[in-house]
From TrEMBL:
Protein name according to UniProt: FtsX-like permease family protein
Database matches in PANTHER family: LIPOPROTEIN-RELEASING SYSTEM TRANSMEMBRANE PROTEIN LOLE (PTHR30489)
GO biological process, one term: lipoprotein localization to outer membrane
InterPro entries noted in UniProt: ABC3_permease_C, Lipoprotein-release_system
Ranges that cross the membrane: 20-40, 245-268, 339-365
GO cellular component, one term: plasma membrane protein complex
One Pfam family in the UniProt entry: FtsX
Keyword annotations of the record: Cell membrane, Membrane, Transmembrane, Transmembrane helix
Amino acid sequence: MKLAFQLALRNLLGSGLRTGLNAGVLSFSFVLIIFFNGMLDGWNEQARRDGIAWEFGQGQLLHEAYDPQDPFSIQEGHGPVPRAQGTLVPILMRQASIYPEGRMLSVILKGIDPAQKTLKLPTRKLAVSRAEVPAIIGQRMAESAHLKVGDQVLLRWRDRHGTFDAGSATIVDVFDTDVSAVDNGQIWIDINQLWEMTGLTGQATLAVFDSEPDNPQVAGWTFKSKETLLQNITQIIEMKKSSGYILFILLLGIALLAIFDTQVLSIFRRQKEIGTYVALGMTRQQVVGLFTVEGGMYSLFALAAGALYGIPLFIYFANHGIGIPPASQNMGVALAERIFPVYGLMLVAGTMLVIVLASTLVSYLPARKIATMNPVNALKGKLQ
């Protein structure tokens, strides 16, 4: 085996430009696969972290009449605040309208405990304000409604009997979050004030767990675990990865096709050399192994070349992130302004293994022809 590696290395170095081109194309596929998957893994990790911190906590209890996919269920989807093991943050949701600059905007009015620390929302600002209806909104909501801290806006809502009421809400803080689900079209106020405004004292639409509960089941409420709530973002990431695999297969296929063609040409042109190896005492299988190792070593050259320019590139993006267009952050999923790729050991090692195995396999396929060659005819240079 040592002799095979030495001969293969000598032959590849002697090929010069041909070896460089094959290794270069293969290294490009290697770097691109790690870069794309690292970016998706970074997005997944960031989205899960932000989703837990801003929206889902360690799980939620949803009133059985409330369906997050059906806005019309908000009106009747509420009940007495559930009692369960651990700390729960109740949230009451009501449909409402605001009138900034004479325009009418439909919003979801959300009441939350100002003292809560489960979610990252800056609710403490609600407790210290002396305004009639202090409210906090997200950056996206502030931009769409043209509101800023200190602005007052007419707020209209319905009480428990369906009667319209109105008041003046004051924006006491505008928070910046990557989770658009707690931002777009939403106004957050003190839940005690919302209970008083609507007459729904002690009612909640959902409740957020501060820690993972051992027994979360409550009659009349549906428990959604943290993993279930994060399922949407997980499915989106998996879908993106699946579509990326098509590109990877094409790129890898082009690189492997180049290696395959090189091996076929090499066996065709080096028949005298093959006959000489057999005449010197090597078995046909040893010659097949030599050519297979030679083809497989393209992958090692590719990994070395990829590491040469890929590692600095990966370090740069891991430290500075990849900018995301602002329009993409309103898709409804947690997406930060910059995504910081994560290059895990499994990702790098798995990609390297695939590259090496695939290169070795496509090198072995044409090398099998050597086993059927007549060494005498090969030494004479007759085509076989």
